[in-house]
Design goal:
The protein has 106 residues and is mainly α. It has helices at residues 3-6, 11-15, 37-63, 70-103. The protein contains 4 helices and no strands. The radius of gyration is 26 Å and the shape is elongated. The two termini are 30 Å apart.
């Protein structure tokens, strides 16, 4: 006989009380939850698309004879390249981590 049964307490009643135990994290409301990975990745893709559109506008302006510095076009292209490589690396790492978790034997 354990302590809880001697006190007349059933374990099911304790865990189903609705109050989190001290080691459990309370559920966060949707407004309190941090951004999901999906929304962060979508934000990065949108940022890449915006940089790409800006760079294309600069190139069209440069070709059209507007006073646009070629260095700014090259810098915009480099920024876009860095963001694409970072997004690709993050996605690869997340996929590898997911695969590692799936291979863990329980």
């Amino acid at each position: 006989m354990d302590f809880m049964s001697t006190m007349g307490i059933e374990a099911a009643k304790v865990t189903q009380s609705g109050m989190p135990l001290s080691f459990e994290k309370a559920a966060l409301s949707p407004s309190e939850r941090p951004d999901s990975f999906k929304s962060m990745l979508a934000g990065a893709v949108n940022q890449i698309e915006d940089l790409n559109a800006d760079r294309k506008e600069m190139i069209q302006g440069f070709i059209g004879g507007e006073n646009i510095d070629m260095h700014q076009i090259m810098i915009a292209g480099a920024k876009e390249d860095v963001l694409i490589k970072a997004a690709s690396t993050v996605t690869t790492k997340v996929a590898a981590a997911y695969q590692t978790l799936m291979n863990i034997q329980v």
